[in-house]
Design goal:
Low-confidence stretches: none
Structural class: alpha/beta
Mean pLDDT: 88
Number of domains: 2
Number of strands: 10
Helix content: 40-55%
Largest sheet: 5 strands, mixed
Strand content: 5-15%
Length: 257
Amino acid sequence: MEQTLVYDGTRAGFFTAIFEIYERKVAEATILKAANYSKGLFDEPRFVITDELKAKRVMEGFKRKSPKGILSMLIKVLHSELDDAEKVVIEVIRKAFKEPRGLRMDYRNDAILRMKQINKMMGREIHRMHAFVRFQKTIDDIYAATISPDFDVIPFIGDHFEKRYADQQWLIYDTKRDYGLFYDGESMQTVTLNNANWVSSHQISDSILAEDEQMFQKAWTGYFHATCIQERKNMRLHLQHVPHRYWKYLPEKTKIN
């Protein structure tokens, strides 16, 4: 009988569930986030209590049985939030522990191929966040940006912005998942905002923008539209480079002069 394990949605919670599968010698298992789980009529789920030590043992064991970098790929799969994410990770881990010589990157295997495909999608979204995130200066002298990406990429974009804006305080907030990254000039941490007035329609509210930021946005929007040559517009090409779903991050696309 298949066992359903329900975890808290964290990385450590998932790998704790993997530990319990092997500890209890569960032959068939499904791992689901608590937020995605709905009890069936005959379900007897096991609710996993996150254990950092157990999770670390699984991750370290997998690293010994797989090529370098594959654990990072699995973690990106989990953060994709796709319906088959947990299933793919379970299958790849089972394959790694089953093979005497460890995991081989054989793309004829469905799980390994799917892991590669999801990582490609995650990589594309991370790259676009690097390109399209736009900071706005707030009255607190913090450069803030809101995002709502297709995947949960917050854990993978911080290093890029920390290196690029090391001398500034900044905040990148995922309004879709209600958490973000705050850099205070020295260290970076994960934060959740309690001020509902801080964002409006998933964007930074004009009421908290610095006065010079509003002036700059108005000037930039005017410049953008003034220099646009209507006769040379190629929307098909433009949308290839700047997909419509990212326009909400760009002041020149959202602000009306």
